[in-house]
Design goal:
The structure holds 2 protein chains of 2 kinds. Chain A is α/β, with parallel strands linked by helices. Chain A has 5 domains: 1-32, no CATH class; 35-220, Helicase, Ruva Protein, domain 3; 236-391, Rossmann fold, CATH 3.40.50.2030; 400-477, no CATH class; 484-774, 3-Layer(aba) Sandwich (Rossmann fold), CATH 3.40.50.2030. Chain A has 29 helices and 23 strands. In chain A, the strands form 6 sheets. Chain A has an 8-stranded mixed sheet, sandwiched between helices. Chain A has a 6-stranded parallel sheet with strand order 9-8-7-10-11-12, sandwiched between helices. In chain A, strands 21-20-23 form a 3-stranded antiparallel sheet. By secondary structure, chain B is α/β, with parallel strands linked by helices. Chain B starts with 18 loop residues before the first strand and ends in an 8-residue tail after the last helix. Classes of the chains: A alpha/beta, B alpha/beta. Chains A and B meet through strand 3, helix 13, strand 22 and helix 26 of A and helix 3, strand 6, helix 4 and helix 5 of B.
């Protein structure tokens, strides 16, 4: 069987004589995707195989060496085991601890990439059903010329219709299958080759995400690269509880769309509240900004238990696997809608709607599986309207007497605290609550990630999480915020406007605050960080649960960050691109800087563009509450592009960092394309994957990691100004590595001239050239195409 | 060998687990005998109150008495400066771990690699993973945590002890520290 990349056959016959007759101007194409008028030369790696970019990976991994921090000393993946891999020991298959760690990281990245790609496959099929195979890919009308920067870069294709995306997914699926097979016992054994494949999985993940979001933007009429996308309501306090309330949880929007459509078609839009948790709610607001976002995935327990949702619909990803039992506890009918998440429920897909509605409203069934989004839409609305009147009185009200009574039964065994990922001081709060003071208990609300492990640990079966939420009822009631609905892609004109300032360093950086909500100290920190960098005129991008956390913040005038800052991709903007698959637009923007601004060829030209982004685009990803395997895959996609990622303290549980050694001068030489010389360019960026212990440390790291070898003196001086200022504020000192980042006296921030000059003199600093930097010796100017 | 349960109940590690420091004199002896120890202080050290003093104050007393170089992680350096300590090397905890694991690293004081890492004041899970990295990949280094929670990946750790017992232990280490280490750096 031919590999997919060889399935693309273009046969053209000008003139041929045969027994059948004369054939003239015959043209046959099999597997054609790209338009015939796309003349961009193809680069060296269209549809790269597992090893096609190995050299690029090795270059960056030679700078950013893995520092492994095993999360378990054992391997238990085959029946040889368990094997103790402590230190230099090896498993029965011969695997070492570094290889085992990178193997697990690859497994995680494969899970993430598979999840996004499977999601994309479902969305493409759904979009084709809804809008047709010939529905054009349209992420932004005339404001977008490069419609699919990642697909162009990785696959060397220029998709034009939804049908074109199917072949892209064929490629992704083949790669993920191969990557997953790498983790089998007795396959890869070298840690760095595992790591290279992690990067490959990340790159594939980004392709899958881009496909997913292009499909839904094109078919569902989402905002199209609109900086002024409408605001939507955010928070539990925004729900009108006098109406029937539907809750959707997950990531795959078709059931939500069907609910919204059914309400519209039946003139019921004003009669029913559509609320959501996690990315499916973000996408629901992109479809209809009247939908409401309750919050990140950590809001699941508290919202379900509030009894407010009358019907609960789950699709896929990041859904609590006990959501069904939680729904049963509050007698809320439950509908599962994905083959990937059936939860043991009876499949009623082929049953008449009336019968399903009757079964759910009568209590004959408490949950069903329906694998037809349209049917889900009708069932959900009808059931919600039917059960809501009877449920209003049953809704749980906060009973503070009960809180005190339950808290008083606490034995102070501390097992709740020992189960809590954030080590919250629950026993002390319970003691105080038992004595009538709820302030400590209420104070835990912000840092609680809603995992519920405290309750599972409690020997007295105290519903600890519920008590925390009840104690914080006033705060919960006031969760009334706004979020800008996901705008999707970045316009070409925006890229043209900021491309120069970014590449020259005059916009000090592009920071993507993304990922899950497993925060060590609550979402407030990520909101504060995004505001800090927006104020400093960085470009702040966001998506998914983090975009929600940023929205749950108000300034002194009562404005949320989305009301304070523009949604445009410009200095000082806070740009919500959308759900987690919309992270592809953040990566895509950095790629488009190489294309739209710098006129580099994207087509199948991965290493050159990654080299460009790495050396010139001061972008940093921040996944402050990263929890999932998808987050691991997303991060890996950014690493391969040369974009560093900072995670919060829980991020060390991803088992390894990719850290540079600033003290190893030999690691930081680049080729100067002007002179052909190898020159020291400093540790910029210093790390590719690093966990920060605190918000304050993270802010200093972020500012530092925005520096790039290509920065002009003006740009470097600006970046150093922020780095030094943040370090002085948070560490109380000027960083000791400043001499590594000052190349010429013109790099020195004017306001710190005297002090920095003294530091340079004491360090023996010598002026050095600012290179035209590349890590690729083959990277010559004639490979570029001016357009 | 005495062991204990990890403070975070689920954070079991593997066959190799930390020895519980049952007597503070043991901690003192370990520090005193080390040729080139390093003290890694996390941000919680400025937050945790132990009998009216912060953890950072106890740790600084130890560092000063034993002439141990300090690596400041998180944003703890500001609190160190507020206490007049200005010679800490500032590094993210994971970067400190990577360097400590490198036997060729010249150390925070430029005097060569460390043979003992003393850790305190970081978030529990971060200490856990960091110590795991050192357990597996820094065979030349021994590790000891002075937090009051059991860390299975260290070589030596206190058990999960009360604040009062913790204070007593730290005071004991301090009292014993007044005579300095056997090999000053």
């Amino acid at each position: 069987m031919l590999p997919l990349t060889e399935k693309k056959i273009a046969l053209t016959i000008k003139e041929m004589e045969s027994d059948l007759g004369r054939i003239r101007d015959l043209s046959i194409s099999i597997g054609k995707i790209s338009a015939a008028d796309w003349t961009e030369p193809e680069g060296p790696t269209p549809y790269p195989s597992l090893t096609a970019l190995r050299d690029w990976d090795r270059r960056i991994l030679s700078r950013y060496k893995p520092f492994y921090m095993p999360f378990c000393d054992l391997c238990c993946l085959c029946t040889y085991g368990k094997c103790d891999l402590t230190g230099t020991k090896k498993g029965a298959c011969g695997i070492s601890m570094p290889a085992q760690q990178s193997r697990i990281v690859l497994l995680s990245a494969c899970i993430g990439a598979a999840t996004h790609t499977s999601h994309a496959r479902e969305l493409v099929s759904y979009a084709i059903k809804k809008a047709g195979r010939d529905c054009p890919i349209n992420p932004g009308g005339t404001s977008i010329g490069v419609e699919a920067p990642i697909i162009r870069l990785v696959c060397g294709e220029k998709p034009e219709t939804l049908a074109d995306l199917e072949a892209i997914l064929d490629y992704c699926e083949s790669q993920i299958t191969a990557l997953l097979s790498v983790t089998h016992t007795g396959q890869e054994g070298d840690p760095l080759d595992f790591e290279s494949k992690v990067l490959h999985a990340g790159m594939i993940d980004h392709v899958g995400m881009e496909v997913a979001d292009l499909a839904q933007i094109s078919a569902l009429g989402y905002p199209k690269a609109d900086p002024d996308a409408p605001l939507a309501a955010l928070g539990m306090g925004t729900v009108d509880t006098t109406k029937p309330v539907i809750l959707v949880i997950g990531h795959n929007v078709p059931p939500s769309v069907a609910i919204i459509d059914y309400l519209h078609d039946e003139n019921l839009t004003d009669e029913v509240e559509v609320t959501g948790i996690c990315c499916t709610s973000i996408d629901a607001t992109r479809y209809s900004p009247r939908a409401k976002i309750i919050g990140p995935m950590s809001w699941q327990l508290r919202y379900i238990r509030s009894g407010i949702p009358d019907v609960i619909i789950v699709d896929e990803q990041c859904i609590r696997t006990d959501a069904l039992s939680e729904a049963r506890a509050v007698h809320a009918p439950f509908i599962a809608t994905s083959e990937k998440n059936c939860l043991g429920l009876p499949d009623r897909t082929n049953d008449p709607v009336d019968v399903i509605v009757s079964d759910l409203t009568s209590g004959k069934l408490d949950g069903v599986l329906i694998l037809d989004p349209e049917k889900v839409g009708e069932v959900a609305v009808r059931v919600a309207r039917a059960v809501a009147p009877g449920r209003k009185n049953a809704r749980r009200t906060v009973d503070l007497t009960e809180v005190q009574k339950q808290a008083a039964s606490c034995t102070q065994c501390r097992l709740c605290q020992r189960a809590c990922p954030n080590d919250l001081k629950i026993p002390a709060a319970m003691k105080a609550a038992g004595e009538g003071s709820l302030s400590l208990l209420a104070g835990l609300y912000e840092a609680c990630v809603g995992c519920g492990k405290c309750e599972k640990a409690c020997i007295k079966e105290i519903p600890v999480h519920s008590l925390i939420v009840a104690a914080a009822a006033e705060r919960v009631k006031n969760e009334k915020f706004t979020i800008r609905t996901g705008r999707g892609a970045i316009q070409d004109i925006e890229i043209r406007n900021v491309g120069g300032p970014i590449v020259l360093g005059e916009i000090p950086g592009v920071i993507g605050f993304v990922g899950c909500s497993n925060y060590a100290n609550g979402g407030r920190e990520v909101a504060e960080m995004s505001l800090e960098f927006a104020k400093r005129r960085y470009i702040v991008c966001t998506s998914g649960c983090t975009a929600m956390a940023i929205g749950m913040h108000r300034d002194e005038e009562g404005k949320t960050p989305y009301e304070q800052y523009p949604g445009s991709f410009t200095a000082g903007g806070i740009v919500n691109v959308g759900s987690c698959v919309a992270n592809s637009h953040i990566a895509g923007a950095t790629i488009k800087i190489a294309s739209v601004f710098a006129h580099r060829n994207l087509r199948g030209n991965y290493a050159e563009i990654a080299d460009y982004v790495y050396n010139r685009v001061g972008a940093v990803g921040v996944a402050w509450g990263a929890m999932s395997q998808k987050a691991a895959a997303i991060a890996a996609g950014f690493w391969r592009l040369g974009i560093p990622v900072v995670v919060g303290p829980h991020g060390t549980k991803y088992r390894r960092m990719l850290l540079g050694r600033a003290d190893h001068d030999e690691d930081w030489y680049v080729h100067d394309q002007r002179t052909g010389e190898d020159v020291y360019a400093g540790p910029a960026p210093e790390h590719l994957f690093v966990a920060a212990e605190t918000q304050k440390e993270a802010m200093v790291l972020i500012a530092k990691l925005c520096m790039r070898p290509n920065d002009t003196s003006r740009g470097r001086a600006m970046k150093l100004t922020h780095y030094i200022d943040l370090s002085q504020r948070n560490f109380g000192t000027i960083p000791d590595d400043i001499p590594r980042y000052v190349r010429t006296p013109a790099d020195i921030p004017v306001t710190l001239k005297g002090e920095i000059t003294r530091i340079l003199e004491q360090s023996g600093w010598k002026e050095r050239p600012i290179p035209d930097p590349t890590l690729l010796k083959r990277n010559k100017p004639e490979t570029r195409q001016e357009r | 060998m005495t062991t204990a349960d990890p403070w975070q109940t689920a954070e079991t590690a593997g066959p190799k687990k930390a020895t519980v420091i049952s007597k503070p004199a043991v901690a003192h002896a370990l520090i005193r005998k080390a040729n080139h120890p390093v003290l890694l202080i996390g941000h919680n050290a400025a937050v945790i109150d132990i009998g009216g003093r912060k953890l950072i104050d106890y740790l600084l007393d130890i560092a000063r008495a034993q002439k141990i170089p300090v690596i400041a992680t998180g944003h703890i350096n500001r609190a160190l400066k507020d206490r007049g300590y200005t010679s800490a090397v500032i590094l993210p905890a994971v970067e400190a771990g990577q360097r400590i694991a490198d036997p060729d690293w010249t150390g925070p004081d430029g005097k060569g690699s460390s043979d003992l890492v003393i850790i305190a004041g970081l978030p529990y899970p971060m200490t856990w993973t960091l110590l795991s990295g050192l357990k597996h990949f820094a065979g030349h280094v021994k590790t000891i945590t002075l937090d009051n929670t059991y860390q299975p990946n260290a070589n030596w750790s206190f058990a999960n002890i009360s604040v009062k017992e913790w204070q007593d232990n730290l005071l004991c280490v301090l009292a014993d520290s007044s005579d300095g280490r056997q090999t000053d750096v």
